[in-house]
From TrEMBL:
Alphabetical UniProt keywords: NADP, Oxidoreductase, Porphyrin biosynthesis
UniProt-recorded name of the protein: Glutamyl-tRNA reductase
Binding-site residues for NADP(+), renumbered to this chain: G189, L190, G191, E192, I193, G194
The keyword GTP-binding appears for this protein: no
UniProt source species: Arcticibacterium luteifluviistationis
GO MF annotations in UniProt: glutamyl-tRNA reductase activity; NADP binding
Domain notes for this protein: Possesses an unusual extended V-shaped dimeric structure with each monomer consisting of three distinct domains arranged along a curved 'spinal' alpha-helix. The N-terminal catalytic domain specifically recognizes the glutamate moiety of the substrate. The second domain is the NADPH-binding domain, and the third C-terminal domain is responsible for dimerization.
NCBIfam families in UniProt: hemA (TIGR01035)
Length: 418
């Protein structure tokens, strides 16, 4: 079955953010695509993963359906299929399996060891299961992926620390959060970094934050998705006193929040500022006001880089875990190939046993018949044990097909089980 496994990937490594945005799929769109794949191509085991960094299709099929599946995606999203096809990567068999494990652990994330990807994989798997598109292979693969992620957390330092600016920012905030009573958070600026911070806050379960941006529509779009509050940008300075934590990533040539702005807030109205802007959007002078603490981008990056280096040092250990998992999964997959033959052989021998039993059972007492049934059943179990072991061993040697043919011929399995 491993030989039937295939992967189609459009990721940040092969395409622009603009293209990834155009083909990104939400839950309903993923489910709709799953149904189309089933209806049009008859493929019954599929997972569709779509994040800000990648849209990928993992599927089981006898032939390569990459071009056709991309055309189906392009039709659903209204994007020229030739454009998508020029940016895809495809993987199959063990390379495909290895790739899925690497994606799921965060080895292929923009921020190595991304903490969000395991949950994104779980969601994609759940949607596949909801649509009855997760068969034995996908179920086994996904649970193997979850087990590998568990091992990575328990056995390596790959997930330790905040290795992105947004995670490092929130982790820094959490270091002093316990000092504040129900703090209110303002995220100022919704460029790429600002949006990442907001999504990280949301992923971590924070609800007491407000967003603001020069373009109100951008704030509105994000707030609609995440159910957070909006502050009109023109009201920031007058409303600043309401917030305990301000995280700023706006672009400005001069500090947007300066000493005079903070002086006008009243004593200790705002306690903590985090400035992620280049050039700075918050003047270092604000720390002259008692109770005001400022963290700049350099301090945040030091924390992030420290974590990133720690994660990189754990990559060999993560790859070793993945290699073991791929090997184990390959063994299981190969055994699935011989499973029908094993069942047929058991059925053939059971049929012979019952036919022979029927010749003598009428002349036996009830107790004798029970004894005879137990004895012959035990004999059949011992007879079949060696062929089953040999089949499984042949799987590992890549010689299963030869032994399957031999058993089919010896026991005429197709005829017996027809």
């Amino acid at each position: 079955m491993t030989s039937q496994f295939k992967v189609i990937s459009i990721s940040y490594k092969t395409s622009s953010l603009e293209l990834r945005e155009r083909i990104a799929l939400n839950e309903d769109e993923c489910k709709a695509l799953l149904l189309k794949i089933k209806d049009v191509f008859g493929i019954s085991e599929v997972v569709v993963l779509s994040t800000c960094n990648r849209t990928e299709i993992y599927y089981l099929a006898d032939k390569d359906c990459s071009i056709d599946l991309v055309k189906l995606l392009s039709a659903q999203k209204g994007v020229d299929s030739a454009l998508i096809l020029s940016h895809i990567e495809t993987f199959s068999e063990e390379k495909g399996l290895e790739y899925v494990f690497e994606v799921a652990t965060g080895l292929h994330s923009q921020v190595i060891g991304d903490l969000q990807i395991p949950n994104q994989i779980k969601n994609a798997y759940q949607w596949s299961a909801d649509m009855d598109m997760a068969g034995p292979f996908i179920h086994r693969l996904m649970h193997s992926v979850f087990f590998v992620n568990k091992r990575v957390v328990q056995e390596t330092g790959f997930r330790d620390g905040a290795a992105s600016t947004s995670y490092a920012t929130v982790e820094t905030m959490e270091s002093f959060l316990h000092l504040l009573n129900e703090p209110k958070i303002l995220v100022l600026g919704l460029g790429e970094i600002g949006q990442d911070v907001v999504k990280t806050l949301d992923n971590k379960g924070y609800t007491n934050f407000t967003v603001t941006n020069r373009t109100y529509a951008k704030s509105e779009e994000l707030a609609t998705t995440l159910k957070c509050d909006i502050l009109p940008f023109e009201d920031v300075k007058t409303e600043l006193k309401k917030f305990d934590i301000v995280i700023s990533s706006i672009r400005t040539e001069e500090p947007f929040i300066d000493l005079e702005t903070v002086k006008g807030l009243g004593h200790k109205s705002v306690k903590y500022f985090v400035d992620l802007s280049v050039p700075r959007s918050i003047s270092p002078d604000i720390q002259k006001v008692p109770g005001m603490v400022l963290y700049d981008l350099d301090e945040i990056q030091v924390r992030a880089n420290r974590a990133l280096e720690g994660r990189k040092s754990s990559v060999p250990a993560v790859k070793n875990i993945i290699t073991e998992a791929v090997s184990d999964f390959g063994d299981w997959s190969n055994q699935m190939v011989v499973s029908p033959t094993i069942q047929k052989l058991k059925g053939a021998l059971e049929q012979i046993r019952k036919e022979e039993m029927s010749k003598y059972v009428k002349s036996l007492s009830k107790e004798e018949a029970i004894k005879m049934d137990k004895i012959t059943s035990s004999m059949m179990q011992k007879v079949i044990k060696l062929p089953v072991l040999q089949l499984k061993a042949a799987c590992k040697r890549g010689e299963a097909e030869t032994l399957i043919d031999v058993l089919n011929n010896l026991f005429d399995l197709e005829k017996v089980n027809s």
